[in-house]
Design goal:
This protein has helices at 5-8, 34-41, 104-111, 121-134, 140-147, 158-180, 182-186; strands spanning 13-19, 22-28, 60-63, 66-69, 82-84. By secondary structure, it is α+β, with helices and mostly antiparallel strands.
């Protein structure tokens, strides 16, 4: 008797996902969304489910370093891509939210009181992480425009913009110090 769930249930498929640097083999229905697989199969609950229509941004993750609404993407579509969730931001490097040090972006959110209730925070963090990787020299106006794509009912957005701008400024200064040093020029 065949006990392989994929062979005995044609409505299931085996997919391999690269999440936070770890490979996961998941047996799932083709119609399962990435957010559902992340939360329910992989137990990475930092990615939140809000509207389930791609409007609120609470489910934002990075797919190949670009922000994506995980509620609008089938998990099978993410096969072969590098997925990062909010758990990847901790500086312990394990990607599993193992209680490591907060990343510079997370610290900036805390220092600028950009957290409030926290429900939308993971989506904003991942949106900002992807945006700053692409646009490290972003202006406050550009940051404000980008964060407008996610919904927050608590902060009024100003503290979120301030936190992202502060992180961007710190990153630019660190890069300038490293890149301008004699050791940085050798590389």
């Amino acid at each position: 008797m065949n006990t392989d769930p994929v062979a005995t249930r044609p409505d299931l498929q085996l997919i391999a996902l690269d999440v936070n640097g770890e490979r996961y083999d998941v047996i799932t229905e083709p119609r399962r969304t990435l957010v559902d697989v992340l939360r329910h199969e992989l137990r990475l609950t930092g990615t939140h489910v809000g509207c389930e229509h791609g409007i609120c941004g609470a489910c934002t993750v990075l797919v190949d370093e670009r922000p994506v609404r995980a509620c609008l993407m089938f998990a099978a579509q993410a096969e072969g891509a590098r997925i990062r969730t909010v758990e990847s931001l901790s500086e312990d490097g394990d990607g599993g939210g193992g209680g490591g040090e907060l990343s510079d972006l997370q610290r900036a959110f805390s220092e600028h009181h950009a957290l409030q209730c926290g429900f939308c925070t993971p989506g904003f963090l991942m949106l900002a992480e992807g945006f700053l990787a692409e646009r490290p020299d972003a202006t406050k106006e550009e940051i404000r425009e980008v964060v407008a794509s996610n919904l927050c009912r608590c902060t009024g957005y100003q503290t979120i913009v301030e936190a992202i701008d502060a992180c961007a400024t710190t990153r630019r200064q660190a890069c300038a110090n490293t890149c301008d040093s004699p050791a940085g020029k050798e590389h």
